[in-house]
Amino acid sequence: MFQVASYETYEDGQEIFKEGTYGDWIYLIDEGAVEIFKTVDDQKVVVGVLPEGEILGELAYIAKIPRTASARAVGHTVIGIIDRNFFDQEFNKLSADFQKMIKMVAVRLKNATETICRSKINAD
After folding, report:
1. In the Cβ-directed half-sphere of 22, how many Cα atoms lie within 13 Å?
2. One digit per residue, pLDDT tens: the chain, 124 residues?
């Protein structure tokens, strides 16, 4: 499916990336799991836990925006870094209109996640 350029190993609780930073990598969970969380009003809100086979980091990469959440390993985790040239080549095969649509969906997902997380904090 994806061409992986390299692998990184993380231990339980180790940070993979931090919300608000810029990243130009998309990751594939090869082994283990990854917790995705946001910090809202100084409170941690878990967005989800991604299992083996899932990808992460795609929103920031596709939309060219800062990371929308933080990611950290759950247990021993091996992450594949998807080859950027491969992904760019595949993405660039799409029409400009379709690329724009995918970027718009990514930004909408970011905004929806932020709204849901804020609602969760306000409800608690």
Report:
1. 3
2. 678 889 999 999 999 999 999 988 899 999 999 999 999 888 899 999 999 999 999 988 888 899 999 999 999 999 999 988 888 888 899 999 999 999 999 999 888 988 888 887 887 6
Q: Which residue has the tokens 């878990």?
A: 46
Cα end-to-end distance, the chain, whole Å:
41
Contacts of 32 (CB under 8 A, 6+ apart): 10, 52, 73, 74, 75, 76, 77, 78
For 11, residues 6+ apart whose C-beta sits below 8 A from its C-beta are 73, 76, 77
- Closest CA relative to residue 48, chosen from 66, 69, 18, 32: 69
Domains of the chain: 4-123 (2.60.120.10)
DSSP assignment of 53-101 equals T-EESHHHHHHT---SSEEEEEEEEEEEEEPHHHHHHHHHTS-HHHHHH
